[in-house]
Amino acid sequence: MKAHGNISLAKDSVIVGFALFAMFFGAGNLIFPPTLGQESGDLWAWGFVGFLLVDAVLSCLGVFVMNAVGGPRDAFDKVLGKVGGTILGTAAILCLCVVFAMPRTAATTFELSVAPYLGNAASAWLVPFSIVFFAIVYLLACRKSRVVDIIGKFFTPTLVLGILVLIVVGIVHPIGPIEAPLTSTVFQEGVRAGYQTMDVLGAAAFSIIILDSAVVKSHSKERDRLSLLARASVCAVVMLAIVYGGLTYLGATSLTLGSNMSQADLLVAVVNALLGDTGMVLLSVVVLLACVTTAVALVSSAADFFCVLFKRRVSYNVLLLIDCIIGVLICDIGLDNIIQLADPVLGIVYPPFIAVVVLLLFHKHIACRHVYQGAAIGAFLAGVALELYGTGAPVVVPLDWLPLYSMGLGWIAFAIVGGAIGWVMGKRA
Predict the structure, then answer these.
(1) Which residue, 255, 188, 175, 243, is CA-closest to 390?
(2) Under CATH, which number does the domain 2-336 receive?
(3) Overall pTM > 0.70
(4) How far apart are the C-alpha atoms of 13 and 370, rounded to whole Å?
(5) Do residues 24 and 193 make contact, with C-beta atoms less than 8 angstroms apart?
(6) Which bin fits 26, alpha (ψ -120 to 50), beta or left (φ > 0)?
């Protein structure tokens, strides 16, 4: 009987692991690993470690710990208070579902699926494309159509299969030799690229879906559920590592294609070099449909979140419309500009999220809410200071002496100090 239970747990762990992989693996994120690989050169594996740590490892860790503390719906509220939890949750939704990731899905679709066939006239078609794209997204989100589920279930596996074929071809027949790095901050570039995926910000929403799934609910004991989630998280990390790691390697071999291309242009060039016109057509169709389903999920999540936040004084459909209009406006500034705009904001928003997620791993030993609040505030202030310092703005003291600064993790020292101050305040209270 126990052996049967272990087999069932192992099987369900794989099922949930594939589900987590499908949630975190987005067509819009495909553009980052190749560029990271090209910049990292023969140190591509080191750059990829930074990317994998911030993207897959911390995202799956977030799903696990939010379920471990009693459920993701109020995990942040429990440790940060209602105000702190709302601020962090709102920041995540704004970055992921409104301002950056959501319009980026449309811009990425245009760059990968439309622009390659329009030549020099491509930029003139971005506005009409974004209007049509978000009109379709709005209609599907309004009706919560099963078409989205069908497309997602079919085209996500197709996209993964296509990427795996691309990676195998690129390993067997490399595009070119791997050269020296183009940057001296390889690991830091990996961390920044991991921020751009914004997967950690979606961990709470994905945790709710996983917790509500029939597979997880079928395990009544908390110990079994946590064991399932731990194994599933490892499974998802391994699969994400294979896909993103392969793409990073392809980027490392692509310097002969040119070194001044945008992220999207480099991916297009890699696919074209390895799979030719047929591969490009397949990539275009699959990315288009995969990004539509992603955009529908993001705008729906934003509308649901703000419906609750505004106590349903604004209807779901009105919030959907507002989000889609914002998507059109931001998409029209172009993919490269969206990425550049997101970079400093994510450098500020990500550190407090990571600090709280890591501390939640020790929630049984850290009962004081002030510790979480102090660490989050310290990480946030560090993020602001480091982003200003990175732009050359005047600061009180130089910050490059901070531990892990060269790895893009200088904020950790501030988070530790903030958590320690919070612990002292908690003791006094």
Answers:
(1) 188
(2) 1.20.1740.10
(3) yes
(4) 35
(5) no
(6) beta
